Amino acid sequence: MITAVKGMNDLFGKRARRWGRMEEDIKLLVGNANFTEFRTPIVEEIALFKRGVGETTDVVQKEMYDFLDKKGRHIAMRPEGTASVVRAFIEHGIAMNEPLPFKAFYIAPFFRYERPQKGRYRQFHQFGIEIFGDDSAQMDAEMIFTACRVLDHFKVNFEVHVNSIGCKECRPAYREKLVEYFSSKKEHLCDDCKTRINTNPLRLLDCKTCDPKSKYKDIPVMTDHLCSACDDHFKQLQKSLAIFHVPYIIDPFIVRGLDYYTRTAFEISANTGGSQNAVAGGGRYDNLVADIGGPDTPATGFAMGLERLFDLISEDFYSEPVLSAGYALCDEAVDDLVHFAKHMSHHPVRFFADYKPKKFKKALQKADKTGAEFMFIIGEDEVKEKKILMKNMKTGEQKVYGQHEVMLIVRDLLNHESGIVRPS
Ligand code: ATP
Ligand code: MG
Fold first, then answer.
1. Domain 13-170+226-312 has what CATH class?
2. Are 269 and 158 in contact, with CB atoms under 8 Å apart?
3. Tens digits of per-residue pLDDT, 5-32?
4. Ligand 1 neighbourhood includes 80 CB (under 6 angstroms)
5. What is the pLDDT of residues 283-308, one digit of tens each?
6. Can you give the residue ranges of every domain in the chain?
7. Distance (Å) from CA 267 to ligand 1 centroid
8. Model-level pTM?
9. How many Å lie between the centroid of ligand 1 and the Cα of residue 402?
10. The domain 323-418: what is its CATH number?
């Protein structure tokens, strides 16, 4: 038997309907703040991620899905969204052609070769936003607020951890301090961190393998070493977060896996106690556009894991719309049922018809199996009288309508959905 590729999932049925509604809600929420959708290809030249995400990051070193195409070009399935959006931002001259700040969002699949487990897949989905052309701390606060707005909408409990990881001016000196601090502790570090000391020492701070941050209490932190411009920016960020009513925790160990961040870095975790509880993360990346060859453009953004968000949304968050089914009890009734299905299709109700004539008992069984709450029946008598019978599957109550009274039927179905009971 051929099965799906390891770590990749199918989506269908009730879950697909809920997933679709989750995406629609997100689009509405960000649309209100003037974000427009940004779609980029699933694959890019691998060089983009090496430069954009960073050669020394786990995502590039260990988790990339890459291959050579028929002409020998080195291609990678995108592991994250920012590098691709930045590439497209430059390629289409958006900085020149669109008013800034330019606010984009995406909802899309991403690929990382990781060990599959709950909340961690090889194809997964992210919702993300990117804002170009604004270096203010207020915009960072709006960016973080946008993530919180979405989580609040879905009634998810979460914690926001913020940090500043400085800029080109102040980070190098801090980096030296870290290298100095950890060089005497090399024997207590994992193999990855022994290499990271030289390549990417900030990553030691969030290593989950040797976990230095819980072992040592005197690790130098970036927030004590910010230059005055970064310090002001970080203070303003906190002030603006308070105005947005975003509760936050200052966490000097948020460094983010990817190389491109400057100043603001943040992560949001769900209060579930589980291990895969990071739902969103992001920050400011003022140098990335220029690093990839574009005009100097400050930018800020985040990505949210949609599988993780989906798992956090309570089962009863979306009420299922009422389902009804139509059946013909004899050959002569089929045309009437087709007519009825056509008219029902114009209305916002969930209805399906089963055109194969069947006995009443069989129709009842089928309707029951599909979970229909109402069943419509057209038999010999109904054909003669141009009537249709509606049966409430739960109460057994029956009601007869004229076949042309679709508006009345729809009103009754919608009233049932909203819990209004009208006397008939
Ligand atoms: P983690 O620490 O859990 O590996 P990350 O720092 O690698 O997360 P980011 O690159 O910040 O993740 O991606 C943003 C969000 O995307 C994460 O917070 C998470 O919700 C989600 N995510 C990342 N990797 C996966 C994956 N393999 N499967 C499902 N969701 C993922
Ligand atoms: Mg990861």
1. alpha beta
2. yes
3. 999 999 999 999 999 999 999 999 999 8
4. yes
5. 999 999 999 999 999 999 999 999 99
6. 13-170+226-312, 323-418
7. 10
8. 0.90
9. 55
10. 3.40.50.800
